[in-house]
Design goal:
This protein is an alpha+beta fold. The protein is built from 11 helices and 17 strands.
Length: 384
């Protein structure tokens, strides 16, 4: 199974040899609704085939569809779906992404992958991680304002105290004098006359340090997502004191996830922490665009923005969520050819602009319609 943070860019931006097949559908997690997932997927694969046969022979189409058909027959896969599904395929490429958000049902055959639904998830400002922590084990969750689920830890991140410390038991006659300075730059100081409580505190500090390093290296840095601590209040100060993770939020959730009645309750608690940050970021982006446009360093005209994107001038590109403008961007000139998505070589022009901006080193953020500062579906802040 592919993950967005690691596999979105791999082979999807540059190396797709047309035709590039993109399939999106909403899926259901639980019985009996999930029984419809495979049927709907099969119908969408047939739609891909119909579109392909407009331009290609059956012999050319068959190998392109074989991975899709194999996925349709994978019963174990369909028994463990989330809220949405994205499947991208071309010659030598097949990517399957289980999504935490429902997505509009869509199939596109074009000369590039249709990736805006994935960009919406990756580039949206509402994503976050939750670290469930106690003295003995951790859990990591990834979520947004709509959904939250536990994710698999990187294999180098220990899950339990035993995984982290092995058989290295702390001397029961040692205590810990300090957690270290901010950022964890100072090692704990030990002295004698400790009891069982002190021994546990020492091991907790050691365990939390190992976890902090592992989460930062293998989850926070690759994703860039805010990290919310969910733990008993007594653990908040200790973890924040020793943490070197710049993505760790100041506010935490004052309960361990296992003590909540459902994962949706955890999502509600997490969103209480995230929503002010989310709204503040959107407001900042909107303000930055307004300032840039007033000084001639921003634009919302599609033609002007497209030319600026291919010339590498766009620092930040805001794209309206759920907006489609059928067309194709000339990656050399920025010229836009408008057409219909039903055409087998036409994709969403906004989607193409987002990919081109990312390739040129720009930041892309998908903005909800009600927060978008323009009516054209796009807003660009220029580097110069």
């Amino acid at each position: 199974m592919n993950t967005l943070d690691k596999d979105f860019a791999a082979d999807l931006m540059d190396n797709c040899a047309p035709p590039c097949l993109s399939l999106y559908q909403t899926t259901h997690r639980h019985y009996p609704d999930n029984q419809q997932n495979r049927i709907r997927f099969g119908n969408l694969v047939k739609a891909l085939e119909t579109s392909l046969l407009q331009q290609h022979s059956k012999e050319e189409v068959r190998p392109l569809l074989e991975p899709f058909l194999a996925l349709a027959d994978d019963r174990d896969f369909w028994n463990h779906t989330l809220d949405g599904l994205a499947v991208l395929g071309a010659k030598g490429i097949f990517r399957v992404f289980k999504l935490q958000r429902p997505v509009a049902e869509l199939v596109v055959v074009a000369d590039s992958f249709h990736t805006k639904p994935l960009m919406r998830i990756l580039q949206s400002a509402d994503r976050y991680h939750v670290l469930g922590l106690n003295r003995h084990e951790i859990k990591l969750f990834e979520g947004n304002r709509d959904a939250l689920c536990e994710i698999q830890l990187h294999h180098d991140v220990p899950r339990t105290l035993k995984d982290a410390l092995g058989e290295e038991l702390t001397d029961p006659h040692s205590t810990v004098a300090s957690y270290g300075g901010t950022g964890g730059s100072q090692s704990p100081m030990h002295h004698g006359h400790g009891g069982k409580k002190a021994e546990i505190d020492i091991d907790a500090v050691r365990f939390f340090r190992v976890i902090d390093r592992g989460i930062l290296e293998h989850h926070s840095q690759p994703s860039g997502l805010p990290l919310i601590l969910a733990a008993l209040t007594e653990h908040h100060h200790m973890f924040h004191e020793l943490s070197a993770n710049p993505f760790l939020t100041d506010k935490s959730i004052d309960i361990h996830p296992d003590s909540l009645s459902s994962i949706d309750k955890l999502r509600e608690r997490a969103w209480q922490v995230m929503e002010p940050r989310y709204l503040a970021r959107l407001a900042t982006l909107v303000e930055e665009f307004g300032n840039a446009k007033s000084k001639g360093r921003g634009d919302d005209d599609m033609a002007q923005v497209a030319r600026a994107v291919v010339n590498g001038r766009v620092a930040t590109l805001l794209i309206e969520d759920h907006r489609e403008i059928p067309g194709r961007i000339n990656a050399e000139t920025g010229d836009i050819e408008y057409d219909n998505l039903a055409h087998p070589e036409i994709d969403d022009a906004l989607d193409d602009l987002g990919l081109l901006a990312l390739k040129m080193g720009g930041q892309v953020v998908i903005i909800p319609t009600e927060r978008m500062p323009t009516t054209t579906g796009i807003a660009a802040i220029y580097r110069y």
